[in-house]
Amino acid sequence: MAVCLESTVGLEAALASSLFYKLKELQCPPVEGLFLTEPESMQELLCTPSIHRLDILEWICARISPLLQGQFSTLKESQTDVKIKEMARLGFQLMICQAEDLDLIKGLATPQRQLSFMNELVDVIRCPDCATGEAPSCSFEETCMSRVQSTEELLKEMFSSPHFQSVRNPECNPWPSDIKPLLLGGEPLQKRNTLAAKTKDAHLEEYQKMLRETSETLDELKEECSFLGSDALPDSSTVVQALKLAVSDFLLLTSTFSQIYEDEFKAHCSRPAPQISDCGPLFQSVHVSLGICSKELQAIAQFSETSDRIVSAVHSRQVEKEAWGGSSMMTLSSKIEQLRKKYEHFHTALHG
Q: From CA 240, how far away is CA 232, in angstroms rounded?
């Protein structure tokens, strides 16, 4: 266990060293002024939560997506959480992490996972179209499309390969008896055979139990449906006889309809419906009645429309104000009331 842990730590330090020199080659500003020689120091820089590490991630993400560079420049130093969420969203768009993997951006994940994530981001920058120049010559969308196309070509090549088909359908010949213990993890062959025999016996007992339960269920169903047997009593076969009679009648009706369709209906199904003559007295009387009814309906519709217009006109005259030969505006009812008062005043003055 100690040897395995030591090898894992050494591998992580080697990955950190490789990533550090990649950033040096890309002229990453947060790394330019650092002179580290020990892989452990490089691992501590890239895998320990710090502002310097976030600056490195921010520069990598800005190189991949220039839009983020403009967005980061507008944020304040206290808005670190916003930057972390945007970098996680970029990793999700590149399909190398989840949008909720904020611990991965903060540096709280395992060193191996952090180094793998940062290596994949750097590989996006180091693509042939984006590796040179101060500003990337290809956009973020073009980079993603390039990665998708290369992955698609790789999958096509893999699925079309005959080796892949042989892996899916392997032809594994029996191994020699002296090789089997080595393939089975070094355990004795007798112990393996004993374990396999016990497992087989357990499965056989389970299958036998299932067969017994199924057989009992079938016996119960057979007792309930005794009238379906060949040795059923005459009075218990009434249901079967009725079912046979219904099926026979249905078959007869179906065959009769099929025959009539072939002889009478089929000729009319492939051509338009026959024209019915309107010369008969019955059709003429129906036509006249329908014409009268249509005219009455039109008259009722015109009457309703005229009534609505009259009501609308009367309502507008009662509500809307108009000028009645003077400068004042008033409604029709107000004008009538004014004339009535003038007439009463005139009549009182005349007979007073």
A: 10
Residue 303 to residue 293: CA distance in whole angstroms: 15
Task: Determine the structural domain holding residue 317 and report its residue range.
Answer: 307-352
Cα–Cα distances (Å) from 187 to 173, 196, 197, 202, 218, in that order, read: 21, 13, 16, 22, 45
For 274-288, letters b (16+ CB in 10 Å) and e give eeeeeeeeeeeeeee
pLDDT at 49 over 70: yes
Q: What is the DSSP letter of 107?
A: T
Find where tokens 């019955």 sit: 282
Task: Give strand pairing partners of 330.
Answer: 322
Residue 271 confidence (pLDDT) above 80: no
The residues with which 126 forms a beta bridge, in sequence order, are none
Alpha-carbon torsion, ordered 207, 210, 216, 221, to 10 deg: -120
User: Which residues are registered as beta bridge partners of 323?
Assistant: 329
Domain total in the chain: 2
Angstrom distance (rounded) from CA 306 to CA 291: 22
Q: Which amino acid is at 325?
A: G
Query: Is the model's pTM score more than 0.90?
Result: no
Residue 129 lies in a domain: yes
Listed residue (192, 166, 172, 170) closest to 181, CA to CA: 192
Query: Token pair of 194, please?
Result: 């004993």
Q: What is the DSSP string of 283-313?
A: HHHHHHHHHHHHHHHHHHHHHHHHHHHHHHH
Is residue 302 very low, low, confident or very high in pLDDT (cuts 50, 70, 90)?
A: very high
Dihedral sign, CA of 257, 259, 262, 263? Answer: negative
Q: Which residues contact 316 (CB under 8 A, 6 or more apart)?
A: none
Kindly state whether residue 172 falls inside one of the protein's structural domains: no
Q: Does residue 283 form part of some domain?
A: no
Of 38, 90, 33, 97, nearest to 64 by C-alpha is 90
Domain boundary among 163, 196, 213: 163
Rounded Cα distance, 229 and 225, in Å: 8
Q: Report whether 90 contacts 64 (CB < 8 A).
A: yes
End position of a domain, from candidates 163, 194, 229:
163
58 contacts 83 by C-beta, under 8 angstroms: yes
Q: Which backbone phi and psi does 108 adopt, to 5 degrees? A: -100, -5
